[in-house]
Structure formats: structure tokens, C-alpha cells
Write a structure and sequence with these properties.
alpha+beta; Thiol Ester Dehydrase, Chain A; 2 helices; globular
Length: 122
Amino acid sequence: MSGKNELFEISNLNHNDGKIVAILKINKDCNIFKGHFPSQPVVPGACMLQIVKDVLQDALSASIRLKKADYLKFTRMIDPENTPSVNLDVTYKLADDDINVNAKLSAGQEACFKFQGSFVKG
């Protein structure tokens, strides 16, 4: 990843033909968990979307921003104490400056977060 990220670290990443598959280690000592929530740490939903953006942005070597979220579904909490790593699967298609994306964060075979939408370069 370009820059320093306190929430997660990429331990493995494959990027080919509009598909990104990554294994991410969640940093259970990240400051985010001091406030979300002190006695029961949980990765915030907004951070799950940010993880998708950060990994995609780095893989494309381009600055991107969220344009539209057609579908967001949070199906399982990610507790960094019990789930130290997650899988990220992203498929995308480039259309001019738009990047149409389907993404999923999962713990093992169980989905935690699903996203369908678009980002735009710039």
C-alpha cells in the first residue's frame, strides 16, 4: 500500500484482468478500536468501504473517489480479536473515468461486507 495504514496490512495480493484478491491482516491495536468499541472492538462499516477504496486505488495506481454506492450490505461484524485477517475480492470494469466495482470482504467462507457501485478517477 502506498502510505501508512494503521487499520490493515496486505499480507497477499493478486491483481489480474479486473480482479483483485487479497488477504488483509487487521491491526487489533489500531486507534479506531479505542472508540469503536472499547470493550468490544468492531471494524466500522465505513472502514470496510474505505478498505475497498484503498486497495483498489493502490492496485490501479490512481487517485479515486466514491461516485455511487448502489448496494452496501453488512452481514457480519469483524472483531479484530477473533478475526485477525479477512479476504478481499474485488472485480472491476473501467468505463472512461468510471470504475464499476463489485467487492466482498469475508472471514473464511462467511461474507462480512458486500459492495456494488462505482468510483471515479481524480
